[in-house]
Write a structure and sequence with these properties.
Blueprint: H1 2-19, E1 44-47, E2 53-59, E3 62-68, E4 74-80, E5 90-95, E6 100-112, E7 115-125, E8 134-135, E9 153-157, E10 160-168, E11 183-191, E12 197-204
Antiparallel strand pairs: 1-2, 2-3, 3-4, 5-6, 6-7, 7-8, 9-10, 10-11, 11-12
């Protein structure tokens, strides 16, 4: 219930932003709230300066991406397929002023209990059917249980997608919060319609403890 109310409130705020003047003066008026047709999913939203808006949430089938009208209602929706996975996914989304959409998802392959998580990305132009997400995080085994990727962040601009995520760096135990294991920050990037490449941006002996 709390997630549903949060989604409803956020969507109302986004629609209000559509109505504001280009100068962002506080002259816009909010439309009536629109309840999203989901209950337990966590939505992520993106809006560009052209007044286009998209939302995304994870399901057992993959990442659902919705195009939102200025009224706040869903105009179209698509499912972004994810490589072989078990259970639901976490999805985050970005939208640029040219109407290009980027989605990054975290999913589990179910090799063993609690393992293994992976990152996949997809990018396309709004209005077209999205491609299946491409796995971009390095392969893992159950032995890498404590070195799995965390929830990604994604941006898109000028036809280029960039996603970043953290691996490792967690506290060794709940009683030793200051003692961190080695970790790193990884990045996937590439152009719409092309392959994506993954690189290691930062490695830390005691792990990066925060990624914004």
């Amino acid at each position: 219930m709390r997630r549903s109310l949060s989604s409803l409130l956020l969507l109302t705020m986004l629609v209000g932003a559509f109505s504001a003047s280009p100068s962002w003066a506080f002259t816009g008026r909010f439309t009536a709230p629109v309840r999203l047709p989901t209950r337990d999913q966590t939505w992520q939203f993106a809006v560009n300066d052209r007044g286009q808006a998209v939302g995304a949430y994870g399901t057992r089938a993959g990442a659902v991406v919705a195009e939102l009208a200025r009224s706040g209602r869903i105009e179209h929706s698509w499912t972004v397929g994810v490589p072989a996975h078990v259970g639901g996914v976490y999805a985050t989304i970005a939208l640029d002023d040219r109407g290009e959409v980027a989605v990054a998802v975290e999913y589990a392959d179910g090799q063993s209990e609690g393992c293994c998580r992976h990152i996949a990305v997809a990018a396309w132009r709004l209005g077209k059917r999205p491609p299946e997400a491409q796995a971009v995080s390095p392969a893992l085994s159950p032995a890498d249980f404590s070195y799995q990727p965390e929830e990604p962040s994604v941006v898109v601009a000028d036809g280029i997608l960039t996603a970043v995520w953290q691996r490792g760096g967690d506290a060794i135990s709940q009683y030793e919060e200051d003692e961190l294991q080695p970790g790193q920050i990884e990045e996937a990037f590439g152009r719409l319609g092309g392959p994506f490449h993954t690189v290691r941006l930062v490695a830390a002996r005691k792990g990066p403890s925060l990624l914004n």
